[in-house]
Amino acid sequence: MIKSHRVTAFMLAGMAFCYPAWAAEVAGMIKTSSGQAVIERNGEKLAATVGTRVLVADKLRTGGDGAVGVTLRDNTRLSAGPNSLIVIEKFAFNSSTHDGNMSVGVRKGTLSVATGKIAKRTPESVDFHTPTSVLGVRGTEFIVEVENGRDD
Amino acid sequence: MVAMIKPGHLLLLVGLLSGCVSDRVVLLPSPDGAETALVVRDASGERVLDRPYAATNTQALAAPFDFRANPEYVETRYAAVLQALPRGAVSHVLYFETGGDRLTQASLAELSALRQQIANWQASEIMVIGHTDRVGSLAANDALSAKRAEAVRELLIGEGIPAEKLEVAGRGEREPLVPTADEVDEPRNRRVEINVR
């Protein structure tokens, strides 16, 4: 019994190594970054450098001189301007069927969007929202600005 | 009436208004000139922006108002955010000999050019997407398209593209380049798309 437990533990450890914890929830990657720009994840702040993966539930926060751009796995492109707080609340994408959904919150500042494959296939499963309004996407490129928004 | 409003009251009013959440949404033109629209819903109802530069401004304590922005307004007010928008994904298409996973001669030649582009693109990610024609069942075509994508992934790794940049997808017969009836042998649909983002 002890032996088989050890084997199981060894296999689980091996699997954990092969399949990183984020594998199922990668939403996209940082493609542009300037000035003060961070990813807030589980209460920690990570530098939003080009090439950093963006996960579901990440918050993108920029300072007065900051801006950051992300391409999501379905080719949706997002960017946050200065003094912004953007939250990737939901993201799921099946690259075979193009089924999926996304929900992105603009808490404050500016967000520009060029929609991707999910919006093309099922526009109703894509939403962008601010503290007070919700956007239904039928178009491809737009800007959302929130003045005096939320800081969390 | 005027005398009743003291300076302190005015300050308070200004403070309240400046503290209100205000949303501004601006619809931009589609890059390909296609029709575009957005629906904006808030507590006051629903408004549709249905042409380039259509815009709306919603405020907590005032009625929303729609306005027409223009390129100068957008470039001035949103220069920083637009500057940060990543560039759009680019697709390259490779073709196969009938019924298998061997690339045509012309497609083999395109690979080296693609390799150059990938090397020059910062933080690039590559989705290798297999497609089939409509000969055979849906399930068989899913499998064939995945097999083609996998073959191209191996080719790209052989060309020196880092494996961790590459993701494969089999779209089967869902996205024909040339729409056909079922069971039509269409070479242009037997392809692998390399989508660089």
Automatic annotation (TrEMBL), chain A:
Keyword NAD belongs to the record: no
Signal sequence, renumbered to the chain: 1-23
The entry's keywords: Signal
Keyword Signal found: yes
Ranges of residues in domain FecR protein: 58-148
Pfam families, sorted: FecR
Domain of life: Bacteria
Protein name, entry field: FecR protein domain-containing protein
Organism: Azonexus hydrophilus
Lineage: Bacteria, Pseudomonadati, Pseudomonadota, Betaproteobacteria, Rhodocyclales
From TrEMBL, chain B:
Keyword field: Cell outer membrane, Membrane
Transmembrane segments: none
Compartment(s) of residence: Cell outer membrane
SUPFAM superfamilies: OmpA-like
Recorded GO CC terms: cell outer membrane
UniProt xrefs under Pfam families: OmpA
InterPro entries: Bact_OuterMem_StrucFunc, OMP_bac, OmpA-like, OMPA-like_CS, OmpA-like_sf
Main location: membrane
OmpA-like domain segment(s): 83-197
Name under which the protein is recorded: OmpA-like domain-containing protein
